[in-house]
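Bug report

Summary: structure tokens for Transporter (CPA2 family) differ between web form and batch submission.
Environment: batch mode, default settings.
Steps: 1) Submit the sequence below via batch. 2) Compare with the web form result.

Sequence submitted:
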Amino acid sequence: MDTSFASVFYEIALLVLLAAGVGFIGLLLRQPLVVAFIAVGVLAGPDALGLVSSTEFIETLSQISIAVLLFLVGLKLDVSLVRNLGKVAVATGLGQVTFTAFFGYLICLALALDPVTSLYIAIALTFSSTIIIVKLLSDKQEIGALHGKIALGFLIVQDIFVVLAMVTLSAIGVGMGEDAGGLWDVAQVFIGGAVMVGAVVVFIRYVANALLAQIARSPELMVIFAVGWAASLAALGDALGFGKELGGLLAGVSLASTEYREAISSRLASLRDFLLLFFFINLGASLQLSTLGDQIGPAIVLSLFVLIGNPLIVLAIMGFMGYRKRTGFLAGLTVAQISEFSLIFMAMGITIGHIGGEAMGLVTLVGLVTIALSVYMITWSHKLFEICEPFLGIFERRRPHREQDDTQSVDDARNVDFVIFGLGRYGCRIGSKLHDKGYRVLGIDFDPEALANWRRMGLEASYGDATDPEFVVHMDLTGVQAVVSAVPRDRGALTEADPQLALLHGLKSANYKGKVFLSVQQVAEAEDLIGKGASVVLKPFDDAADYAVRQLTEQAES
């Protein structure tokens, strides 16, 4: 017994160390950990190094990881949030899901796959990775951009579709699986599910807030409760016949309407990532490398479909709804990969007995290809748009009214004294102070919430992006005394668009002759920007520190 325990301990320690090493290589290649973890599973599997022998223990950790992952998804599905989804998010999300599922099914049939396998793969191709997209958009500081907000909106729509697909799959599995027991078994699952949903509704209404208010006194206890709650409902869901996945999801939904959901989500994120390591190791170790060679051709076809078809349908829908081609293109690139949920969905199909391991291997290959390539597509999205722009005219209306309605003030820029790009705290303070001194100020930002806040201050605002040269070039800046950029220059390790240099380039192309004030976070950047055309470089952190030192020394000497 002791020897067996020691063997498992050594094996897990070795796998975690191997994951750290492969993950570091993936980091250098700017790849998400999903790719690195699957690679670890393949390396540790029986067809490579043969390190995985404690399959039952790893399988258990894998199941816990799925419960925690779906619990965190459920935390996002607040009823009020779903109800307030914008029309573009709903239309784009449903349109992309429908397009991908329908044409993906036809492509799979054309690849000589049977109808059931084709249906599974087609549905799996509709899911995009929320974790990867949010991480990349956050690194590029584009979560607040219009295309970032729209992308997050249709990711929520996809998450809802994930829920519906898994519910449907669980119900079908009871009636069609290898251990099917007839209509009564199906009815029992629906009855059990209805009872559980009813209990969750009662919990949300009468218990959740009061209970968490007490538990939240101890952050550590809140984390333990969240994990225990997710695992318990996952186990209950499995006992009732509709799966651990939906049980974990319901656990998240039961806490989604509380004020503590963000705290729980942030505290469990690291645990989720650690546990998911074992899901992907288990997945990679189960792949039979000898049979993957036959899947390369179909994997390439389906990967191209996801990489090209998904962004195009998003671009087409958003263009039809009145968005500019640039916004549609940047939002569309976020769905150019499949998700970890695709693999979980396929694993459910294998458990039920609908599909075989070959289908899982095919989807895993598609996942590796699309995730790896889409990371670079999203990272270099602005460069890609410059290359593709001449061919994207058909996806933009003659009048993209949804964005033009928010840019009506741009034509009046000639009548203002100052134009400020970036309406965060620093930009807002500059704008309000100039307004108080009697100057007319126009604020420009790509975050609709920042624009709304600016307008509440009684100032003129316009939607726009300093990194969009087309926007800056078409501005009429006649009579403008100065253009001010309060946009942070350091936009993260994964962005290629320098907002300050892009703005200087756009102003030069527009033949603007006035003053240009640019803000920097590092003093060393000032000389570089002055040499490239900036009139004055603002150093908010240095200026604030100088003011603080003056206050401190004056108080100390008085």
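Above is the batch result. After comparison, the two runs are identical; trailing whitespace caused the diff. The two ends are 74 Å apart (CA to CA). Residues 183-215 form the longest helix (33 residues).
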